[in-house]
Write the structure tokens for this entry.
Amino acid sequence: MSTTPPPAADGLPVLGQTLDLIRDQLGLHDAAVAEYGDVVRIRTLGVGEYCLVAHPDHVRYALVEEPDAFAKTDDFGVAFGQSIGSTEGEQWRRQRDALEEFFYPGRIRSYVDDVVRITERRVDRWRDGDRVALRDQMDRVALENFFGAVFGRELDPDGDETLQRAADDLNLWFEPTSFALPNWVPTPAHRRFHEAVETLRAEAEALLAERKRGEAGDDLLSTLVELREDGEADLSDREIVDQVTGLTFAGYETTALVLSYALYLLGTHEGVRERFHAELDDVLGGDPPTLSDVGALTTTEGVVHETLRRYPPVFMLPRVTTRPVDLGDYRLPEGMRTHVSIWRLHRDGRFWDAPDDWRPARWRDESPADRGCSFVPFGAGPRACLARRFATLEAVIALAVVGQRFRVEPLRDLELEPVMTLQPAHDLPARLRARE
């Protein structure tokens, strides 16, 4: 048993690394791990002191072997109430069991046709030579897919701006300036966040009332109501509504980011792009992709996996210790915030060949499972994302639909702006070129 605390990164008196966190969170974490090692303490005004963890063995211990010793922090609960992303113990298990009824493989298979239809509807609006914002376009694709699956609601491609804005504003709870301050500080970002939550809650409550009147569908809300009425799920109305707001944050945006980054990267890597388009032509022959095609779309799947590695939408997993624990050579006390750095894990040259290169071909002979906890874009262990297969399949299918008809020419270099998810600092402007 160790008694040695992890090393603490140098910082300013009182402020610690607060200013560095606000200016360049990723750079702060890169520098701290490079100087102090895989377990290092960071001090900030907002969240206080936290321990950054950046080694697969330590991540396996925290997420897979001893998950009960590393509970979710209260940030997500304060933001999203009693959703599965914040609950613990028996309440979490009840919610997980209910949600697993929705994310079972058979339902995922039926989802493919909807993804094709919604993505084609968006692509039908594009023309050769158009200048578009990739981020905005992929937000629309992902949000329309998400609302159909979770709310059972068809979004208007030309409308529903209020819901689109509300979904986008959920990230503001974790905006760097606000996150570096106590969450009771009424920043403009926090005010917009609370307005967004109320908008989505109102939508969810109205649709929940419809489901309770018997207007059932094949969506998540209907599934949860049906399970409760059949006595198979003990969920309150508040829990059901909170699942919707929490999943909106965790679900749609991560897919939108993967699609945005993947299209940008295909536009800047000519050799990969040519192999990607050749595969689509060979496998699909101009037909819409189906579930049976997915197994043959190995380059496309590699593009998705490699994009998740290079630019993981969820780049950090916050936890808090529930008891004293040993992590490698160090002792963490009870109540210590512990942040798993997915960003660092995915870029560590000890575990990845040429980690700074975007190489989809590295996944030809390797699956995500082969990488263990050096590749955790969806977390790991019992609390890994329930929708990970759902999200990966959606990304592969949507990329295939776009790639059959267009290639993308980025008009600006990528810059990153991490919030709670890994955002681009701008909307990724690009020129569309129709494929002949």
In short: The domain at 18-434 is CATH 1.10.630.10 (Cytochrome p450).
